């Protein structure tokens, strides 16, 4: 029996990798990845970004190429660009690993709970409003789920709002109900 792909929506459940920490999201939006990054991630990314041009400068001092100032400045711009891209890669990878539960993520779990419970209380969709059909949201989710694990080869991130993130969202609604009930009791 053939089904119309416009009406039939199959949700492919994500494979959840085993980890020592709670999984926050198997396909975090790029805004959340950078928004949840820690100061230490930004410091490491800045250090990584500075390493490349510093290494090129040190190599030029130790063993001069003799190309002169006009030849060296484009090389330094390229080295800075490589350093910045590498730094952003490290920043994204470290933050995304916390979403997947691969590294310690207590701070991010608390931030996620607060953000999602606030959205539930306001009546907003948890993962943003999407203009795509449910079918395309599923395609987007399947294409970018766990994508940061291979980001060093294929730079891919989730830019789409969809509702398939590999976690049970009931916990957000339950927490919101508890908080709303506590607020009602406090007002009475």
Care to describe what's here?
The chain is mainly α. It contains six helices and no strands. Helix 4 crosses helix 6 (170-187). The chain is elongated.
Question: Could you provide a short overview of the structure?
Answer:
By secondary structure, the chain is mostly helical. Helices cover 58% and strands 0% of the residues.
Characteristic terms for this protein:
188 residues; mainly alpha; 0% strand
N-to-C SSE string, H for helix and E for strand: HHHHHH
Q: Major sheet: size, sense and barrel closure?
A: none
Based on helices, strands and strand pairing, what is the structural class?
Answer: mainly alpha
Tally of strands: 0
Shape: elongated
Number of helices: 6
Which regions have little confidence, pLDDT < 50, spanning 5+ residues?
Answer: none
Q: What's the overall average pLDDT, rounded?
A: 89
Helix content: 55-70%
Strand % is: under 5%
Could you tell me how far the N terminus lies from the C terminus, measured between alpha carbons in angstroms?
Answer: 58 Å
Radius of gyration from the alpha-carbon trace, in angstroms: 22 Å
Protein name: NADH-ubiquinone oxidoreductase 21 kDa subunit
Organism: Penicillium citrinum
Domain NADH-ubiquinone oxidoreductase 21kDa subunit C-terminal fungi: 113-186
Pfam families: NADH-u_ox-rdase, NADH_u_ox_C
